[in-house]
Write a sequence for this structure.
């Protein structure tokens, strides 16, 4: 409007034609995007000035749907039910978003947020929001303020109200505003992670890492990025034995030389890992045909392997050519490494199979980078449901890999195979179901929901990177998804757009485990964030419910209940414990008395007074942390603290409480709430279940 000589706050008379207008988008926006209804002005005259009307406040005046984008093919207008109709109902209106929570890094001068009081929004451990099969988070809001230098990450927030006008562009509704209109910015405490998996002489570790167009050319892969990736393999991933690399470019990157060799790119990667204190890796790959495998033009991305020759050996064999299809001979790979059916899927990366030996155990790793989602219609587009053009090819690629493994199992029923890499699809999609078939287990599905993501796109945290194993080693495999990139910007240490993942396999004969039991608690759903932790403790016989059918996850945990669980975890012989000095436990069941006596004798507890334990009082989060800290010290020795936990509400806690909370923070057992720990609040039964479950590795000798 400034071209007509009017500004915000002017009263105007406008002459023009109402039209459906495509403001901004890709070349296919008229076929895919939603238009904006506007007046194409032929004249605008200023009539005076006035205060702007109060904005419509999201979460107060109106509340967006939190699950459904559209469920009727745009045949009816349901703003209360459909997210796409809700935002269209506010098109070009003046809106306010109070105390917005940032759910991912800034990109293109935009941040995706949710309002402070957004209903039914479940955050992941770093402050992002997860997708599920039926929920792509229509409540999220893209704030377009056109400042690509703004530094923000998941877990940050705004203290105050963002105001702007609701527009649309590039497949999404957007709140148009200016940087100067943003309220005070508050940095959260989200930091990159280090794996909880510890190296073991007799256990194999295998990682997968999409390195986002890594090459030997510093003009395209900066030295800073290379150094970050090298350090991440050592410091964050503990120098895995085998690494499936995704998006390795040829030596000169996206330069039209026609050369597809990547040996210099790999040597550069090996060198930065070694400089970071890691081992000297060896590398193998198969160079693709020039510009035939997709990705950045002339970059010739491919998958390949790094492996530590001090830990594993690449089995003897002939390396295949780019157009040779791998097969099986007596349960061994005919080509090592070799591509899987390279002729069948032109224009995308070819899966690469390599056979290794680890302490006499043969195993095969298949590195995969399935076709991208390019060509899929947008979530908030004019075609509902959106057509996923890329999906059919991805399903066929997945079937191809599954069939290849099945052929190998016909020759060797005990064949052990790992399939990992960037599958470009989610764990609940047909493509991943086809990849699994009935012979593979996707270990990503074992990861708690709050930790299950490897990529961030348009406000949604999601899983694109996967690690699957043949069923015969599934129960012997642990997985960790390392969140070091996707929720951050380069200013925070980001080196790629994907997070790596790491698995550890124990090839020794599996020890019999306590069989899983059906959990009887009707108030704990499989979709609840705490389900996996409560189920873990229940299966181990550590927790019971408050009744036969109720767990009461939100109820507070008493001091006595905490000790019941803890003494079971520690397998303490409570019946033989000497009496404690507490006179207020005599009316408890004898088993509860014994548990308190045993914990006191072990030095794990003290009373509220010299003679009172107060067994039925609720235990605070700070005191619960102290309890776990004492157990940790008793079993593992003193924990060395380099830096106190960053929670802002610990100033009134004792030094011992601060150190205990820091231990749990450093071990990723607690993550806090928007920068706070809430130390004096009583701990809920589901919070305690999570902490106990995650603490188990530190509670045994």
């Amino acid at each position: 409007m400034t071209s007509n000589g009017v500004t915000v706050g002017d009263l105007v008379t406008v002459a023009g034609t109402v039209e459906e207008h495509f403001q901004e988008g890709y070349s296919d926006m008229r076929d895919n995007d939603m238009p904006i209804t506007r007046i194409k002005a032929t004249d605008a005259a200023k009539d005076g000035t006035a205060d702007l009307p109060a904005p419509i406040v999201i979460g107060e005046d109106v509340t967006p749907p939190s699950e459904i984008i559209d469920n009727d093919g745009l045949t009816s207008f349901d703003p209360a039910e459909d997210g796409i109709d809700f935002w269209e109902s506010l098109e070009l209106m003046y809106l306010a978003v109070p105390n917005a929570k940032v759910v991912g890094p800034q990109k293109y001068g935009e941040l995706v947020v949710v309002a402070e009081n957004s209903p039914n929004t479940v955050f992941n451990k770093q402050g992002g929001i997860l997708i599920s099969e039926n929920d792509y988070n229509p409540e999220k809001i893209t704030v377009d303020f056109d400042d690509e230098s703004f530094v923000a990450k998941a877990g940050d927030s705004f203290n105050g109200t963002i105001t702007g006008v609701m527009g649309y562009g590039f497949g999404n509704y957007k709140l148009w505003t200016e940087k100067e209109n943003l309220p005070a910015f508050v940095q959260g405490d989200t930091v990159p992670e280090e794996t909880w998996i510890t190296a073991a002489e007799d256990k194999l570790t295998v990682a997968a890492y999409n390195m986002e167009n890594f090459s030997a050319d510093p003009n395209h892969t900066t030295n800073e990025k290379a150094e970050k990736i090298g350090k991440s393999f050592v410091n964050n991933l503990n120098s895995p034995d085998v690494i499936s690399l995704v998006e390795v470019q040829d030596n000169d990157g996206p330069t039209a030389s026609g050369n597809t060799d990547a040996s210099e790119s790999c040597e550069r990667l090996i060198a930065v890992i070694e400089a970071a204190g890691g081992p000297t890796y060896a590398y193998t790959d198969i160079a693709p045909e020039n510009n035939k495998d997709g990705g950045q033009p002339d970059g010739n991305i491919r998958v390949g392997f790094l492996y530590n020759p001090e830990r594993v050996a690449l089995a003897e064999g002939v390396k295949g050519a780019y157009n040779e299809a791998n097969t099986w001979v007596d349960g061994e790979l005919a080509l090592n490494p070799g591509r899987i059916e390279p002729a069948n899927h032109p224009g995308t990366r070819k899966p690469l199979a390599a056979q290794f030996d680890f302490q006499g155990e043969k195993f095969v790793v298949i590195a995969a980078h399935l076709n991208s989602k390019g060509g899929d219609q947008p979530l908030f587009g004019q075609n509902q449901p959106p057509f996923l053009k890329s999906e059919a090819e991805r399903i066929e690629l997945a079937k191809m890999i599954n069939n290849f493994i099945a052929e190998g199992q016909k020759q060797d029923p005990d064949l052990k195979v790992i399939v990992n890499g960037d599958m470009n699809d989610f764990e609940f999609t047909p493509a991943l179901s086809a990849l699994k078939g009935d012979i593979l287990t996707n270990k990503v599905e074992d990861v708690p929901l709050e930790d299950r993501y490897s990529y961030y796109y348009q406000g949604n945290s999601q899983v694109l990177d996967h690690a699957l194993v043949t069923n015969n080693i599934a129960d012997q495999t642990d997985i960790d998804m390392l969140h070091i990139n996707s929720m951050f910007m380069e200013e925070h240490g980001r080196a790629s757009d994907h997070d790596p993942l790491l698995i550890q396999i124990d090839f020794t004969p599996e020890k019999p485990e306590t069989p899983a039991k059906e959990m009887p608690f009707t108030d704990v759903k499989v979709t609840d964030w705490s389900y996996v932790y409560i189920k873990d403790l229940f299966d181990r016989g550590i927790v019971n419910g408050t009744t036969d059918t109720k767990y009461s996850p939100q109820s507070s945990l008493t001091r006595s209940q905490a000790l019941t669980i803890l003494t079971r975890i520690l397998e303490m012989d409570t019946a033989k414990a000497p009496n404690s000095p507490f006179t207020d436990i005599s009316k408890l069941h004898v088993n509860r008395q014994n548990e308190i006596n045993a914990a006191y004798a072990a030095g794990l507890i003290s009373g509220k007074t010299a003679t009172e334990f107060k067994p039925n009082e609720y235990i605070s989060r700070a005191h619960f942390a102290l309890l776990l800290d004492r157990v940790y010290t008793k079993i593992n020795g003193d924990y060395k603290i380099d830096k106190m936990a960053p929670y802002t509400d610990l100033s009134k806690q004792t030094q011992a409480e601060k150190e205990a909370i820091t231990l749990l923070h450093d071990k990723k057992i607690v993550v806090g709430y928007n920068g706070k720990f809430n130390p004096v609040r009583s701990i809920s039964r589901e919070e305690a279940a999570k902490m106990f479950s995650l603490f188990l590795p530190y509670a045994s000798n």
